[in-house]
Amino acid sequence: MWAYEKKLEYPVKICNPNPKLAKLIITQYGGPDGELGASLRYLSQRFSMPCPQTKGLLNDIGMSCL
Amino acid sequence: MENCMTSRDNLLTDIAALDFMLIDLSLYLDTHPTDLRALNLFNSVKSQADMEKVNYTNNYGPLTASSTSQTCWNWLCNPWPWDGMGGDC
User: Fold this and answer.
1) What residues of chain A lie within 8 A of the CB of B33, using their CB?
2) What is the pLDDT of residue A60?
3) Interface mutation vs chain B, best among A2, A7, A15, A60, most B CBs within 10 Å
4) If DSSP states are collapsed to H, E and C, what string results for B18-84?
């Protein structure tokens, strides 16, 4: 079902670590209305989606947000 | 922390760029499955990415658990993606 690739999606170089910003970013990702919740919804909704294009989208977008 | 991009970092960045194109193209093709120009582009980027991944695996180690060495479980070797890369700050 899932394959893990040992690489980042794009290069990350943190020159000036900023814990406050990091905290904000992670709450945006994981918190209410966050991308993580959205991706889990898409991955659940794909099972009952009748239209093939939308089913593919729910799968692919849900997976890439995760 | 290193201050220069190694050739490993450069190759991995190139692979990441190609993979990102593939992600973008696959989302487009999901809603335009009959677009042959996009499909051909997908195929050519895919073969380039595959070639570079083989190159990376031969020189630096596996990118997936299934491409590990047959003689030792080098999947565990450092670095992992979150260990950071060199680069100019």
Assistant:
1) 53
2) 93
3) A7
4) HHHHHHHHHHHHHHCCCCHHHHHHHHHHHHHHHHHHHHHHHHHCCCCHHHCCCCCCHHHCCCCHHHC
Cβ of residue A3 closer than 8 Å to a chain B Cβ: yes
What is the Cα–Cα distance from B32 to B65, expressed in whole angstroms?
Answer: 32
Selecting from B19, B27, B66 the residue whose C-beta is nearest the C-beta of A60 gives B27
State pTM to two decimals: 0.83
CA distance to partner chain B, nearest, from residue A55 (Å): 9
Q: What ipTM was predicted for this assembly?
A: 0.81
In chain B, what residues touch A15 (CB-CB under 8 Å)? 89
Sequence-distant (6+) residues with CB within 8 A of A12 are B84, B85
The pLDDT tens digits of the residues spanning B12-31 come to 999 999 999 999 999 999 99
**pLDDT band, very low/low/confident/very high, at B88 (cuts 50, 70, 90):** low
pLDDT in tens, B36-60: 999 999 999 999 999 999 999 999 9
